[in-house]
Specification:
There is one protein chain. This protein has 190 residues and is of the alpha+beta class. It folds into two domains: 74 residues, 2-Layer Sandwich (Uridine Diphospho-n-acetylenolpyruvylglucosamine Reductase, domain 3); 107 residues, Enolase-like, domain 1 (2-Layer Sandwich). It is 34% helix and 27% strand. It has seven helices and nine strands, in the order αααββαβββββββααα. α5 packs antiparallel against α6. It is globular. The relative contact order is 0.15.
Amino acid sequence: MLDVFASVQIREVASIGGNLSTASPIGDLIPVMMALKAKLKIAGQLGFRWVEIEDFITDYRQNCLQNDELLVGIGIHDLKANTHFRTAKVSTRRDLDISTVNISIRIQLDENEIVEEIILAYGGMAATVKRAVKAEQYLIGKPWAKEVVEEAKAYIEHDFTPISDARSGAEFRLEVAKNLLLKMFYEVSR
């Protein structure tokens, strides 16, 4: 994701905290942090508090920060040896462009390639970055195999009702979201 994140000029002055705090549904780093189960350290007049990334974004372009608070840190645990993390972005241009749809996946497989845990965090599919919970539930306990992932793609339609806007139509977004899941299968299975 960082290879296609903004322009050089933006990268020189931007911050990860700023990207998260804008709470954009197409922000590149929110799905990444969601899949990584990030905890955010918030400082205010009363001290510090930690917030789960999924509780940080409260609505379209809204976060849980109070008027006297700042996001000052991000905590991410190391991934276990049998956990895979991947991310992908679809946009009109390769660089310098915000996402039409993006995905970050965290998947933990057992020794038999059975899905023990999975997070499918999508941007551009709802008013906020959102997990594909029904697709996740379908995949847990099943083999990480192409035919199973193909079946899981059908649940994406139950997880999201995307809008049409200047970037893309709703039908296109649904197809891209399904295809990104399949792309993540191939990425993890390498």
